[in-house]
Design brief:
237 residues; alpha/beta; Nucleotidyltransferase, domain 5; 2 domains; seven-stranded mixed sheet; five-stranded mixed sheet; 7 helices; globular
């Protein structure tokens, strides 16, 4: 079976996975400022059949990735949103303006959950995208991630500071009030989008804050390690 290197260049990290012989054999992530550290890891990956990349981190990051990929005599597929692909129909007003990562995540979700579902990526930013049972992407929302919400309060409110707190039903100190408020704000927005889908729709959650966020949601959720990589694999295939 094909060997596929899937690469997701996000807002703060690069996530990658090697899919070979029908399964993910390796997955890892690095901060965008440490991409060159991937060279020794990728040197050991052996022969590849396909390379597929989602990049929302900008041109400079793309060039760094290109240099690392030059060791393989392959033309990488640089993913961009289309009007339709892999069973997903793009309902964006301007389909090509949908982020490559959101597009790949929708395709990954469609492969893992064939019915209607909400596709949540909880990273630096949080996205919640509606996918109907027929594969139509019906729109979604983008909001600051938990970390960005907390940093915004620390930077713009004189009496607040950045610190770890606990999520609790009755916050009784400032740290817990911020931690709970930011997580519940995420959960409330996601639940409001989810309410627009038919009863019984699924909810797939991915990203660095996925496990924390899933505990705050009132509907049944499935945490997926990396929906973008799952989508990239289907696009490569």
């Amino acid at each position: 079976m094909a060997s596929v290197l899937a690469i997701d260049c996000g807002n703060s990290r690069l996530k990658w996975g090697l899919h070979r012989d029908g399964a993910w054999r390796r997955q890892d992530a690095v901060l965008l400022g440490a991409i060159l550290r991937l060279e020794p890891q990728w040197r050991d990956l052996g022969t590849l059949d396909r390379i597929v990349v989602s990049n929302v981190a900008g041109q400079a990051v793309g060039l760094e990735v290109e240099r690392l990929l030059a060791r393989w005599a392959l033309q990488p597929v640089w993913v961009a949103a289309k009007r339709s692909e892999c069973g997903v129909v793009n309902g964006y007003e301007e389909p090509e303006r949908l982020g490559a990562d959101r597009w790949a995540a929708l395709i990954g979700a469609r492969a893992l959950h064939p019915g209607a579902c909400l596709v949540v990526d909880a990273g630096t930013a949080t996205t919640a995208d509606m996918l109907r049972a027929d594969g139509a992407f019906a729109g979604g929302v983008i909001l600051p991630g938990v970390g960005l919400m907390k940093r915004s309060l620390a930077e713009h409110a004189a009496q607040l500071f950045l610190a770890e707190g606990r999520v609790t039903p009755e916050p009784r100190n400032t740290q817990d009030a911020i931690e709970t408020g930011c997580l519940w704000a995420q959960a409330g927005a996601i639940e409001r989008v989810y309410a627009q889908l038919p009863a019984g729709a699924g909810c797939l959650v991915s990203g660095g804050n996925a496990k924390k966020l899933a505990t705050a949601l009132r509907m049944e959720t499935r945490v997926v390690d990396n929906l973008v990589l799952e989508g990239l694999l289907r696009i490569a295939g």
